[in-house]
Write a structure and sequence with these properties.
single chain; alpha+beta; three-stranded antiparallel β-sheet; about 15% strand; elongated
């Protein structure tokens, strides 16, 4: 009998140094295996013990992890960007946040651990290709929407926080690049 991920217990794990100082908080279905993934972190040499707090689901663990990190702010945790703590799953019809997507990727990576390396590689390659296509498609649609509103390439760059050169580079990959004369618009 297969247990669905929704009802599968997951843990929030805490890594401490020998003096009892909290170094990192994470969550996983298998905290022993997952905590080993941190061996390349600069703080890993300080880890002396791990404590696990079990929750009925991965979503519940994400919520507890997020709250614990916000409260304790351990030095090994990032609050934003890659490797950030996951946000709880969105309610139905709610938009997924980047943090939720990262959390789902983490869960997917955990699921791949039992697969042979060649299968893991193929599945990750397929995932990257699908994600890249989806991001490019959406970014192209947003750019076209901005252009349709009358914005110049330079105004688009300023609005999204990119240089005109970076806008040109992106467009060369996804659309027709702007002409050099458009810089003066």
């Amino acid at each position: 009998m297969t247990v669905s991920n929704e009802s599968r217990p997951a843990a929030v794990y805490r890594l401490y140094d020998a003096d009892g100082a909290l170094l990192y908080i994470g969550s996983a279905y298998d905290p022993a295996q997952r905590s080993k993934k941190h061996r390349e972190k600069p703080w890993w040499a300080l880890v002396a013990r791990r404590e696990d707090e079990w929750h009925p689901s991965r979503e519940a663990a994400y919520v507890a992890e997020t709250e614990a990190i916000k409260e304790k702010m351990p030095p090994g945790n990032k609050i934003s960007g890659p490797g950030a703590v996951a946000a709880p799953a969105p309610k139905p019809k709610a938009a997924a946040t980047p943090l939720f997507v990262l959390a789902e990727l983490d869960a997917y990576f955990d699921q791949l651990e039992g697969e042979p390396p060649a299968i893991q590689f193929r599945k990750l390659t397929d995932l990257m290709e699908a994600m890249e296509k989806a991001v490019h498609t959406r970014r192209k649609a947003i750019f076209q929407e901005l252009r349709a509103s009358g914005m110049t390439y330079r105004e688009i760059g300023a609005a999204v926080g990119l240089s005109f050169g970076r806008v040109r580079q992106i467009l060369a990959e996804e659309l027709e690049p702007p002409s050099d004369t458009e810089e003066s618009e």
